[in-house]
Structure formats: C-alpha cells, structure tokens
Amino acid sequence: MEGMISVDEWKEGSQLYFLTHLHSDHMKGLSSNWNKGPLVCSPITAKLFPYKFTDFDLSLLRVLEIGPTYSFSLLSPFSQLETEVQVTLIDADHCPGSVMYLFRGDKFKCRLYTGDFRWEATSERALLAKTKLLNALGNDTIDYLYMDNTYCNPLYSFPPREVIAQQVIDIIASHPEHDVIIAVNTLGKEDLLLRISRALNIKIWVRPERLQTMRLLGFGDIFTTNRSLTRVRAVPMYSFGIKTLEELNVLSTLEDYKALLIRPTIGILPSGLPWLMRGSNENDYSCGSDKSNIAAVPGAQVHKCKQVEGSSSFTKIGRYIYSLPYSDHSCFDELQEFIKLVQPLSLKGIVLSEHCNVDPCHYLGHLCKPDQVTEQPRKKLPRKDKPVVGCSKSFKRKKYMKFCKVRRSRVSLLRRLRCGAKITESVTAGCSISDS
DNA sequence: GCGATCAGCT
DNA sequence: CACAGCTGATCGC
Q1: Rounded distance, CA A350 to CA A363, Å?
Q2: Where is the DNA repair metallo-beta-lactamase domain (predicted)?
C-alpha cells in the first residue's frame, strides 16, 4: 500500500490516511498543522478530534460510517493509472470511535487492519461486528491480516469486561465508607465507569477535560467535576500509585484533614498490564496464605486474594490498590477465535515493540488458511522474545519494583494533587469548576 | 520561543 | 522491554 494509503502512520507520500482510534500511540506524528492529505476516521473519532487537535483543518477529515462500503479513487504510484480501493469500517470495541479497516481493490488485494480491538464472544457489540464483518467480506478471503497482538500469547487469559466490571462494583460496594479512585486514561474504559455509576447509583468524578469528552459521547449527566457529589473518582494513571494511596489514607486519620473531606481511600487499577508481570508462575508475586515474599519487594505487598463469593479474584498491590484484568485489548483466546473466523492467508502484528511481543504467527499461524502459493514458513521466535513465555523472575521483579517505587518529588505530588488523586487542591478547584 | 523527540515515570 | 499518556529536558529552527 506504499504510496497509496497508510493506517495509523503519518509519513509523507500517501494519498489517503486512516486513523483507527484516538490513543496517542496511534497518533504519533499527527498534529494540528496536518497537511499531508485526507484523513479517514469514524464518526465518533471525528466528533472528538477537534478537541485533541484544536487548529486541525477539519475539511481534511473524511468521516465514514461503520458498516457500509465506500469507494475511493487513487493513483497507482507506478503506472500512474487510476485504481479503486473499497473501504469498510468495523467496530473494534477498544475505545470510543475505534474501528478496524477492511480494504479491497485490484492493487490492494484484501487486507484487514484491526487496530487495537477487543473481541468478546459474549458481547452484543462483538456479535454485531462479526455479522458486519462477514457481510462485508462476502466470499473474499483476507490476504493480509494486520492484527492487534498486544496479548498474543496463551498466557494472557482474562474474562470479559462485563465480569470484571461486576467485580469492581462488588469491591466498591464492600467499602461503603471509602473514597475510591479508579485509574483510567483519556479515552477508554467508559463502560466500566458507566456500569459502576448505574449499579451503585452514583456519579463519577472526572477532570474537566474528561467531562468534556464524556459530554460529547452523551454520558455527561453521570459524570461530574464536583468532588462533593461523589466518593468515586476516575483519575489518570500518572496520578495513581501506591504512594498516593498511602498518603491519602494517612491524611484521612488526621484531624486537620477531616475538614478537607479526606477519607480512607482505595484504588482500582483496571488493567491487563499488572497481569503481565505474573508470567507463567501464578504465584510469583502472590501469597496464597501467610507465606508471603513481600520482604523481597520493599515498600509493597502483593496479595492474591479470593473474594468473598469465591468465584472472582483480584490482586492487591500494596494495602489499598485492587488490580483487576479489565482490558480493552483482546485476550489470547479471543485473538484465536478471531483468526478462526476470518482465516487470513497471512498474519502480521501491529504492535511494533520488538521486545515484549511475539510474532503472532508463532501461536496463531497454524490457524491461517493454508495457501499453496504464498504460504509463510512458521515463524520462529526471535531470541529476545522467548522470555515472554515465562518472563524471568528477575525481569518481573525489576518491573514490579519499578511499579512500586516510591516517588519523592514534590512537583510530582503537586501534579498528582491536580489530577484528582488528592483532595486538598480539588476542594476549591472542584467546586469552582463544578458542572453547571 | 516553539515544535518535535526522547527519557522517565505510573 | 509498556495498555496509554503526562511532564520535563533537550535539540534544531
């Protein structure tokens, strides 16, 4: 597709550019002074777009609906002759506005670029996406599948988001006297917040920028920037950590801070990432009973805990953080199901990190449709990637230590204050900005 | 002084 | 060695 189209890449020289979703790792290189050509995106992405890039020339956006097939005329870079490309958008269910792109055309063969996606067998949305994808494909075979390989390893196994969301709700409900902070990024995990709000009949505090986003998405009424209206706050990852939670819980015991409404607080870390650190040995950083290895990890205690109901489990990081595998990326089983469904002739990962991600062909190549002419040899794992299968203990420990490391910088504390993790500053900020 | 890029952090 | 993303330092214009 060189010289014709590019997806989530913004180098000079393409005739059409495609954006899968509004996360910064897929927008690296996009800026307000964009002038390289038309940029295709979904309606929701287009709605949020001007708030990410304030001076962007919106006449360059090409907004396509999910479902229908569109046709574009391009110039073949070699023959200089006109050639058509058909494009269909499929819901990727990764974050608001996220889509996959299905390309077809003489010069293109049939290519599916998933972007980041979650493929939950039980979800209404995935079923709908599945129908639309199969409809769009018809009898065509996918020649090239470019797939989200974030969790492309059998080790990465986690339940649907709905299940984890209920576990989060249970944790919050079992701490009725606590404030709760939930780590979220600028876009994504809205469904978790909505479920919490609905189940517990409570508003969710967010930063003003995030409130703006939620309003655009139509969820404005359940979010607030007024601290006094709720005990549940969604805060950015970077203002969330063991140290912050420790501070909040120490301050909540001091008389002086009671006036500032600082209460005992728990943290919820809804992320696939801490799960990665466990590697093949489930017990590396957990302690089933009292035989803990916490001494080896100064400043942090990690307990694997069975929840009251027995069916759900979570990991505790430190005394106050509950970590749960709520992921906006497909787990391994879902990737496997996806490949079985679309049966591509060839498969390529889109997560480019050379170190921690395995060539998806290693685990999933055998599910691709055998093709006599272009069959790819089963790819060997690069040497570097092998430890992923069971990240070495020392490696995981190093990672873990890094995560738990206590920050001492005053500046960063102030930053965290501003971001809602702490109340001291937000008491005034929160009230003055409070939603009208 | 500004944007792009990178290092560092959670 | 990073789901995503902020901040601050540095470099080139």
Answers
A1: 15
A2: 222-344
pLDDT at residue A352, rounded to an integer: 66
CB-neighbour burial class of residue A317 (10 A; exposed 0-12, middle 13-18, buried 19+): buried
What's the token pair of residue A183? 């780590």
Q: What is the DSSP letter of A66?
A: B
| Strand order across the beta sheet in which A61-63 lies | A5-7, A16-18, A39-41, A61-63
Name every residue whose Cβ is closer than 8 Å to that of residue A378 and which is 6 or more positions away in sequence: A361, A362, A365, A366
Q: What is the pTM of this model?
A: 0.81
Cα A236 to Cα A193: distance, rounded to the nearest angstrom: 13
Sign of the CA dihedral with A47 first, then A326, A333, and A392 last: positive
Residue A30: DSSP 8-state:
-
What's the pLDDT score for residue A400?
45
CATH says A5-154+329-426 is which class? alpha beta
> pLDDT below 70 — which residues of chain A?
273-313, 352-358, 361, 370-436
Tell me how far apart the alpha carbons of residues A261 and A247 are, in angstroms, rounded to a whole number: 14
How many residues in chain A? Answer: 436
A262, A249 Cβ separation under 8 angstroms: no
pLDDT at A415: 52
Quick check: A186 CB within 7 A of strand C? yes
Closest alpha carbon to C1' of B10, residue: A238
Residue A28 in tokens = 């690296």
Is residue A422 left, alpha or beta, with left meaning phi > 0 and alpha meaning psi from -120 to 50?
beta
Domain with CATH 3.40.50.12650 in chain A: 161-324
Asked if strand C comes closer than 7 Å to A357 Cβ, the answer is yes
Residue ranges, comma separated, of all CATH 3.60.15.10 domains in chain A are: 5-154+329-426
Decide: CB of A299 under 7 A of nucleic strand B. Answer: no
The CATH number given to A161-324 is 3.40.50.12650
